[in-house]
Amino acid sequence: MKKLFALLVLTGIALTGCSKATSAQSGASTTAVAEQTITVPDVGGLTLDKATDQLKDLGLKVDAEDINDGKTILSKKNWQVVSQDPLPAVQVAKDSKVKLGVRHLTDETATPTPTPTPTPIQEPIKLVAPPVVATPAVVVPPPAVVEAPPVVPVVPAQPPVVQAPPAAPATTYYKNCTAVRAAGAAPIRVGQPGYGSHLDKDGDGVGCEK
Q1: CB count in 10 Å sphere of residue 176
Q2: Which pLDDT value is given to residue 114?
Q3: pLDDT number for residue 20
C-alpha cells in the first residue's frame, strides 16, 4: 500500500510539471506573436525621407513609387507621400512591405492667377423716339338734315265782321240819342250819317254810348 501511494504521488508531481511547462510555452509563443505584429502608422503628407525613417524604425520595409509620371526618386526630401498600402492602423507582421505613392513637390498644380475680367465700357444710352403712329382721321358724319316742316303762313284772325247799321240817308239827322237808339244806330261814330257833336257830349268821337 505504501508503495502504491508513493507511486501515485510521484505521478501527480510529474503531471503538474508537464502542465506548467506547457503553459509557459504557450505564453511565450503568444508574447512572441504580439511582439512580431506592428500597427501601420499614418505617414500621409510627410516627405518621403521622414516617412521612410518612421516605417523602418518600426521594422517595416518601404517601397515608394511616383504616381504621376513614374519618375526615378533621387532625393527623398523632395517627394511627398500621398497614398499608402496597407492603410493606417492595420496590423501587419514585422518586415512587411508598405507601398507608398509619392509625388514630387514641384508637381503641385499652381493655382492659376485669375485673369481680371475687363470692365465693359458702358456705351451711352441712345434714346430712340418711339415711332409716330399715324392716328386715323376720325370721319365725322355730317349732321342729318332735318327737313323743316313747311311754313304755314299765319293768317291773322279776322275780327268778326260787324255789320254796319244800315246807312242813313245823307240827310239823316238825329235830334237826340233817343232818336239814334230808336233808329238802331247807337252808338253812333264820327263819319256815320246822322253823327253830330250834340250827340257826343264827351267829344271822344262816339255818341250815344249809353
Answers
A1: 13
A2: 59
A3: 47
